[in-house]
Amino acid sequence: MHIRDMKRRDLHAIRALAAKTWKATYTPQIPDDIQKKVIRDAYSSHEMNRRFRSSITLVAEENGRIHGYAFFSPEKYSEHNAYLESLYVDPAEQGRGIGRSLLHTGLRRFEQPDHCRLIVYKGNKSVYFYTKEGFEITGERNGDFFGYPVTLIEMEKKLNGKG
């Protein structure tokens, strides 16, 4: 498995993988029509161009096939700290260390970060993954997701003994 920077030529594969992972991950919590809106908007050319300019965009590739991806950005009020926007791995490939490799590769791109933060939907099984990776739940809040009510879990991992 090779972790590399995402290229524009990867967008079709990323959109297909996003649709697949969202369906597998969120079907119990988020209706199909809302999922489709998210995929259309969050992975639009406009939004992906923004990510290419302002985020660290990584893919996990093996034998020319993308099995996972992650988006990191600098934290809003402390640019040396990391914010994990998204991390998704093909459900058929989970358990092979792909998510862990994406996470650690992305974190190494930040210069001496104190912490990494993320937000995940309550009920998402990835909370277990993030907990195993050293993240702690720091809060919970209700939100509105394209008109659909959701509960969000805020998580944080302290890095380099700081934070």
Automatic annotation (TrEMBL):
<feature type="domain" description="N-acetyltransferase">
    <location>
        <begin position="1"/>
        <end position="160"/>
    </location>
</feature>
<keyword id="KW-0808">Transferase</keyword>
<keyword id="KW-0012">Acyltransferase</keyword>
<dbReference type="GO" id="GO:0016746">
    <property type="term" value="F:acyltransferase activity"/>
</dbReference>
<dbReference type="InterPro" id="IPR050832">
    <property type="entry name" value="Bact_Acetyltransf"/>
</dbReference>
<dbReference type="Pfam" id="PF13673">
    <property type="entry name" value="Acetyltransf_10"/>
</dbReference>
<dbReference type="InterPro" id="IPR016181">
    <property type="entry name" value="Acyl_CoA_acyltransferase"/>
</dbReference>
<dbReference type="InterPro" id="IPR000182">
    <property type="entry name" value="GNAT_dom"/>
</dbReference>
<protein>
    <submittedName>
        <fullName>GNAT family N-acetyltransferase</fullName>
        <ecNumber>2.3.1.-</ecNumber>
    </submittedName>
</protein>
